[in-house]
Fold this protein.
Amino acid sequence: GEDVEQSLFLSVREGDSSVINCTYTDSSSTYLYWYKQEPGAGLQLLTYIFSNMDMKQDQRLTVLLNKKDKHLSLRIADTQTGDSAIYFCAVDNDYKLSFGAGTTVTVRA
Amino acid sequence: EAGVTQFPSHSVIEKGQTVTLRCDPISGHDNLYWYRRVMGKEIKFLLHFVKESKQDESGMPNNRFLAERTGGTYSTLKVQPAELEDSGVYFCASSHRGLRDGYTFGSGTRLTVV
């Protein structure tokens, strides 16, 4: 099956940029996603990127995809306290999502 | 438009008991999925319905788990009998037919087996 790896923790100062990294093994994935889970809440789709794209920008979010290295990253500009959450990388394989274990982002003042 | 609704939000049961989780997808979404996150690990796929049919149940851990989607609307996931290792958060998601970029997840049911 698909393996998706991401670092477990990230601590960032308010106002700085956050970069969350993810690697995956299946090169046939068509869609790659970033989900956010705030405490006590469900999974919220933040953004996604098609596999034929290298970059996608959406307000404070920038997604970079390196297909050769099977590496996906999410950059959050001007990180705010409301960005504290668990961020999951997920890749699509025939209608089935494979998730990483989640990166817990802590924003400190 | 109402989102994906799951209940209960929390359930605490004793080992050996039965629990039934329910998911109401977004109206009109043919695809319904169950996922599970155990003990802070990755979220794992359990199964996928297309309308009332099981399209893929390769992620179901064992025969103690039974999922149904009668009539192609809401779905239930029954665990019988529950074991300690079944504890975790069970997520349901739905998507419209053909739109793989449109998965919407529910808030999840946190199941604790003691």
In short: The mean pLDDT of chain A is 92.
